[in-house]
Design a protein that fits this description.
By secondary structure, the chain is α+β, with helices and mostly antiparallel strands. The protein has helices spanning 4-53, 58-61, 71-92, 132-135, 175-224, 241-253, 258-305, 309-336, 339-343, 346-361, 378-399, 427-430, 435-446, and strands at 96-102, 107-112, 139-145, 150-161, 164-174, 364-371, 374-375, 403-410, 413-420, 450-456, 460-468, 473-474. The chain folds into 3 domains: 27-178, Beta-Lactamase (2-Layer Sandwich), CATH 3.30.450; 180-336; 339-474, Histidine kinase-like ATPase, C-terminal domain (Heat Shock Protein 90), CATH 3.30.565.10.
Length: 478
């Protein structure tokens, strides 16, 4: 039976896919409609230009040509005069067609491109061009053209003289050429979106890295209180300047309560850091992550319609890059701040981390839970998780252990016990110089807890943390 969590994931994937497909279809439809409208305007302009080029009426062209008696002679004469006009227009507008039709002669007298004498005949009895003789209005249509011998996008323009329709002119474009323009425009937009999203991904990674560096710089400088007024403007991001000013003002007022106030500010810094991590992780997942997923689906849809091997190879490469970028965004967002920590609490987050940790590092983790689990305040849960995360990552890097024991006890207090069975180290020599251990100890002291490290070379390392839980809310956690 499918679990609720899996159902939610499947529904989310389906929803994103459906929305992406709908948005892609709407965008393609809008692009196609805009392109058709543009072609109608262009072909309409060509038709009006032909009408303007016909000064007077067709009969005016026959003045002083009384020797032209037969229908064929008149058609040939009209062709001699009007065909050069059509040729000039079709040369000025490549891919477009145009022509003249004389109603009295019931015949086309000039057309292009690909003019032949055999084409100087009457239009088909079912031709949509005949509608303009009743409506006396220009007519747009998307249908077969006998002069182009293909489907066209066309505008038929009636030639009206003295209130009567004496013939018509037209402008058209083969539908294959319209399709070519459509796919070129679609491909250009897709490539532009891909490039923009990839650049956005790298920019986000760079900004996140710089932000973490700025946070670390901020913390180091606050500890030393060594910034003058000029350095305050450039040492770290503007949003931290106000916090720094509060720290400085607090220091001037500190006496016997200096240590207590310092703890409060450090706690605020950690909360600010975690809130920003949570915001950045959410933005990565909901913004760039969803956009990359939509892009990946779009690339696959385009790939199904592409038959050129070079274009298919390019699309496959773009799809591979986008897929890798999507995985990087997911990993980056989880490492910054796992959403499960806020939604479900410490225990489910630890279980999720252990599951991933065992798969990646091939280290067996024995997690033991004792007591009635409950939700703690946010900073306590975050601090315990960060310590737990750093201890396990350090064990994977340095301890060379193949198994780890973790015990989390919920009694009146909260106890976290982590034991690896690796190479160990000289704890008396390293504790005072290790940045990682000092950072863990600082977090625990901030929560009025105790932090103990014991390590023996060749035996392993044991870390024991005890916290007094305050204002905890009882809540069952599976």
């Amino acid at each position: 039976m499918i679990s609720v969590k899996r159902k939610i994931r499947i529904f989310t994937v389906w929803l994103v896919f459906t929305i992406t497909l709908c948005m892609t279809s709407i965008k393609a439809y809008e692009l196609w409609s805009d392109l058709l409208e543009q072609e109608y305007k262009t072909t309409g302009s060509i038709a009006r230009l032909l009408d303007v080029q016909l000064v007077g009426s067709y009969e005016d062209l026959l003045r002083d040509r009384e020797e032209l008696k037969t229908k064929e002679e008149k058609i040939n004469y009209y062709n001699e005069i009007l065909q050069p006009i059509v040729d000039r227009i079709t040369q000025s507008f490549p891919q477009y067609g145009a022509g003249y039709y004389v109603h009295d002669l019931q015949s086309i007298v000039a057309f292009g491109p690909d003019f032949t004498k055999e084409g100087l005949i009457d239009i088909s009895p079912t031709s949509l061009a005949r509608t303009v003789y009743d409506s006396k209005q220009p007519y747009r249509f998307y249908n077969y053209s006998q002069t182009r011998n293909s489907l066209v996008v066309a505008v038929i323009h009636p030639v009206i003289r003295d209130g009567e329709v004496i013939g018509h002119v037209w402008g058209n474009m083969a539908i294959d050429d319209v399709y070519q323009k459509f796919f070129e425009a679609l491909k250009t937009r897709s490539i532009a979106v891909i490039i923009l999203l990839i650049l956005s991904l790298f920019a986000t990674k760079y900004i996140t890295t710089q932000y973490d560096k700025s946070i670390q710089t901020f913390r180091d400088r606050v500890k030393n209180m060594d910034l003058d007024q000029e350095e305050k403007q450039s040492a770290f991001l503007p949003e931290f300047r106000e916090i720094y000013q509060e720290v400085v003002q607090s220091r001037n007022r500190l006496s016997e309560s200096e240590k207590r106030h310092q703890k409060q500010m450090t706690r605020k810094i950690l909360e600010t850091q975690e809130e920003e991590r949570k915001r950045v992780a959410r933005d990565l997942h909901d913004g760039i992550g969803q956009a990359l997923y939509s892009l990946l689906i779009t690339l696959r849809l385009i790939g199904r319609k592409t038959h050129e091997s070079d274009e298919q190879e390019l699309l496959n490469r773009m799809e591979e890059i986008t897929s890798l970028a999507l995985e990087d965004v997911k990993s980056l967002a989880f490492n910054l701040r796992p959403a499960i920590l806020d939604e479900l609490g410490l225990v489910p987050t630890i279980r999720a981390f252990i599951e991933s940790y065992q798969q990646i590092h091939r280290i067996q983790v024995n997690f033991q839970l004792e007591g009635e689990t409950r939700r703690l305040d946010s900073i306590t849960e975050v601090s315990l998780y960060r310590i737990f995360q750093e201890v396990l990552n350090n064990a994977a890097k340095y301890s060379k252990t193949d198994r780890i024991l973790i015990q989390l006890k919920y009694t009146k207090d909260i106890e976290l016990f982590i034991q690896d069975f690796g190479v160990g180290f000289d704890s008396s020599a390293i504790q005072s110089t290790s940045t990682g251990l000092c950072g863990m100890k600082e977090r625990v002291q901030l929560l009025d807890g105790s932090f103990h490290v014991h390590s023996v070379v060749g035996v392993g390392t044991r870390i024991h943390i005890i916290l007094h839980s305050k204002d905890s809310t009882k809540e069952r956690v599976s």
